Amino acid sequence: MSSLSAYIVRRILWIIPVFFVVTAITFALGRYGPGDPIEVRTQGRADPETVERVREELGLNQPVPLQYVRYMADFFQGDMGESISKYPGVPVWELIRERIWITAQLNIVSLVILFWLGIALGSFAAMHVGGWKDPAIISFLLIFQAIPTMVFIPILLWLFVVKLSWLPAAGWDGLLSLHIVIPLIALVLPSLAGVARLMRVSLLGTMGQDWVRTARAKGLPERTVFFRHIFRPSLLPLTTSVGGSLASIFGGSLFVELLYGIPGMGRLALDAVYARDYDIIMAVFIISALAFLFARLITDVAYTFIDPRIRLGAESR
User: pTM score, two decimals?
Assistant: First the structure.
């Protein structure tokens, strides 16, 4: 087995217990938390005999650890339960299947644009350090970082919909429609300062390294020095921030989908929380956890491609 394959296997073996610990804690909080799924399902109108019968049908009379094991076994067989209040009797997977691709498109495109712009602006600021352009760019981006998403979206709606009439007010019509513009702005701009600053600091730190001075002393073209000896090593810190950026974008997408009327996972999750629809909440959380852990795995693997010393260091331990 190659060193890279062994490294990937070790990361997967680390992810599996983390996934089950996180989901077990979430499941327990749902079961021991306020509210009773039976009361939600029966709307508090059933007699005690009916309540006990429904509780037994749902397996809620069993110990919580056993409920968790059965739930996870059913989950990985495609059975995520049924909605008990918001969409009574509708399988949870049918509700999620209609929405997961919308949320995935919104989050992935936002993440790609975030890092593309962040790397570009951070590089531009680093190349103009000492002048007015460097602080101007970073200060401008920090303004958007300070505005909460729930405040930023109404501002965007007022500006682009009410005042300028450039964009549609709400809804979703795919990535290639104007409906995507406001959600992308709302998700990308607040996180852009963090990525740009990280890239700027990383570039400035790399520019002072001995190997950069050596490359310049050899007479290499400045373009070669920058892209081969400065830019690539400077990407290392950014790869570790992908997971955090994805979590930030996903958290922001909850409010974006709710306020902009996008029928995605975030909108479904918030509706389920308000309706205390436990199976929907749990399914959305598990899928989100899987997505974040998978993104972390991809990040770790990408890190080893950029700097093979990472996996070699792991082997030596």
Answer: 0.78
